[in-house]
Write a structure and sequence with these properties.
heterodimer; A: mainly alpha; B: alpha/beta; prenyltransferase (chain A); zinc (chain A); Geranylgeranyl transferase type-2 subunit beta (chain A)
Amino acid sequence: MEFNPPLLTSSQRTLSLFPLPLHFPLEIRTAGEVEFPPPPKRHAPPLQQALNTIESTLVAMGELAADKHVKYILAVEKRKDSFESAVLEHLRMNGAYWGLTTLDLLDKRDVVDSNEIIEWILKCQHESGGFAGNIGHDPHILYTLSAIQVLALFDKLNVLDVDKVSTYIAGLQNEDGSFSGDIWGEVDTRFSYIAICGLSILKCLDKINVERAVNYIISCRNVDGGFGCTPGGESHAGQIFCCVAALAITGALHYVDKDLLGWWLCERQVKSGGLNGRPEKLPDVCYSWWVLSSLTMIDRVHWISKEKLIKFILNCQDTENGGISDRPDDAVDIFHTYFGVAGKTVAA
Amino acid sequence: MHGRPRKPLKPVDEAAVAAKAEKLRALQSEFLSNHQNKIYSKEAVELSAKLLEINPELYTAWNYRKLAVQQNLAQCESDPESVNSILDEELKVVENALRQNFKSYGAWHHRKWVLEKGHSSMDKELGLLDKFQAMDARNFHAWNYRRFVAALMKRSDEDELEHTQNMIDKNLSNYSAWHNRSNFLSRNCSVLLSNLMKKAAPGFTSKDEVLTREYELVREALFTDEDDQSGWFYHLWLLDQTVRSEFPLLVSSWPVEGSDISLPAADYLDGCASMNVFHYSSRNFPLVLYFNQSVRGVNSSTVSVSCGFNLNIDLIWKPLSSTDSQSAKVWATHLAIPDAELHSSEAYQVEVKVGFSQGIVSTTGVAYSHPSQISFQLHLQKTPLESGQDSRFGRIQWKDDCFAVYEPGSAEPDLVNLLDNLTIKNEVESTASTWQARIIDDETNIFRDLLDCKIGKLTVARLLTAYNSLRPLDKPVHCKEVLELYSELMKLDPSHYQYYKDNHSLVLLQQVTSSKESLLSRCFHYRDSTLSTNGSPLCLRLNNLAISQLGSFEKLLWVQMLDLSNNELQSIEGLEALQLLSQLCLSNNKFRSFTALESLRYLKSLKVLDISQNEIGSHSIDTTRYLFRSPLSHSVGSCDWNINYLSSETYWEAFFVLKDMGLTQLDVAGNAITSKSFNVFLEKLLPTLKWLDGVEVN
């Protein structure tokens, strides 16, 4: 019998559940490589085991107001009368990803009607293959990744014309290896990560010039070990996540000075236990995710105190009405709810 | 939603909010309909401006405006006045949007798009930037935009450096300005700095003058407020600039210069693990080169090996790096000595010449320009091995009573001699380090005044460590002080305990490996009933040191038997340099998964491995997974996939790490991953295995 390496091992599977890139761990297929067997069904036994572990850890560490957060997410989706909901309408695709992944992390994915969501997602697809943030808006790589991720979350990638979507993403690569966000040419290492992550989920990384993509990311590396959005741009934890994750997917983490970047990242933890995104900035729950996952990828996550971080995240919960905010007693939103739950899960 | 209070300060008029939201929705849908129908009338375009003032993040509206501009520009047939008024209008809309939200990606990009059409005066742009940067000196959009404008108007790096200087002078606590300064300096360090120095003080162009000046500048920030991180990373960068050797250099090698090595003839040991000190299988004799930095281009034309026998084929040098197949700090090859060439009691002089012909280059592109030569002797001993040699496969037990203190003179005079010569002498280093040592000395003295705070302690510890790195041939000084500083930091700043602990471990290992005496005090003879005293191997025991990170590998290339048990290790990254390792004990550490043990794949001589009592399989997040060379993202060479055991899927990482190893003894008990089926899997995976968890394998 022919033995093929599994697409994802149990620990990878577990990880794949948490991070922003859904099937983040390293699925790359280059031309001419052997066909891998289809991925195991979601919620295969190891995953369920992992979930149980997480749940028991949650119980042990207490206090993630999971039910409240689920209610909050469902309520946000229904509220149309707030000014915020109108302002954020153009990025509903991101919102869908944040909300639905949070539900998935809390093991409550089935409280939503996946068919309805998938139908809406497909209405956001543009003839170019890219997805818009909402119906009637323009396509952009930001929303294209969220669309791919939500479909992957529901195990419905088969509704996609993979060739068309991947051609759209690959078409945004520039001569120097960088990626534009859309046809209007804004360049940013966020888009490099998005392209690489999206194409790796679709198993189409062979459609871009990976070497140039990696070289561009390296050109955005700074002397503090971090990365900026363009060459010369200041290091920023969110940008570092994008660059480190893109290098991880493409097997190029040896370009990262792990000890130097690790020190910069671990010093993001401030006295309250929270993490900031740059030196001398306030802590913010969303950096729990950006910093924590970057430290995890370079194996330096033990350089911060996870207990203090978890305390900080839990303090940012609205225990009355659900949701998590950037800092204690600030207004909650779905973005921070997602990053808080994800950060808490990885830290636990 | 950043920084907005959860409970509004004033009671909210919900009806008013709903009405406002309703109005915005109406505007948005009218805009989307215009966009869809490609309506670019004056009213329609004005509507988009109105929307963007309320919501600058509405990216589709910026796209719409670009389409409108393109159409209008085409219609006005490049009448300069109309062109100007069209583009001016865009700049105005952007400015208004930025006033609403000056972190709006879409707005900044729209402005760049307009500027790229050759519009706006650069002075106006810089003026606008000054205004925004005065409001928020850390806004990275503004800094990025500034770089864009500076490049567009071809402002000199000196001018921009001066700008960072002004920003720093205004406020020492501006990390963004420090970042930009390091960015300019690192990009074009020599040219830029020398220009600067000419301006400042004609005649001074040397690197040390510049560094001294920069140290002074950043010191001001560090001493003004020691908790302010703005200068921390800049100082660390300066330190790195001070001590880092630009040139790739050979640091150490195996065999070491001048050593005598006894090889048993192939007939007796082929394919077996010899337990005798400095006896190797002659078919597979390793040569290792350890550089001070990652290099590429090590091959049979850049490294020539001559010996008394015919090598027949070119040697193939392999980088010992799990992540990069092109470059590495450590390179290895194996001398395969043909049987026919072997004559007993004959000595062969072997010479390894590194870098006499060009081709070895650092990853930054600097050529290896200090050729080194390593000479050593190979003795072939055709002594028949004692009877009952199979007992050499008796089980190794890592128990204290199996180890006897090393007695000088008892055996292995070779070893004692070579421990004196572990580090290769590089003349470049000693001449260049004078000014560097002076700078570091001065800096250390100044920072001793700051020893009551975290950054002061950390900086002094780093400076003292850097000082030692400049003098690789001398015994390190101040080790005790550095260890104490890190211990104090662990108490002072418990959140980052493990960072200090890891650094503490590295310094401890530097101390242990720094001298022959210190190394010998950790060398033991392994003795048990099955071994004759003659053949007792020498074991380096670095157990019970509480170390959490490994280092100083360049001093350990000679080690064959290594005991690292009872430490706090989570990774063995770097251990692949120890190509002679045949027995390794890693029990009672903190390894969390097999991905943390990837270096084992490169240890082709390894026969005995103990990884018992670790945490393999007990954590749901595998923090070494991403650094692990995955077969999913890399080619792994020839893999034999035709093995039919289903459990390989479950034990994929173990399969990947262990599959090609010729282990005879393995201990894995005391890990969450172990089970009956795991042991069955291991027995199938490792056909050479004689002992598994202390039980003889059939």
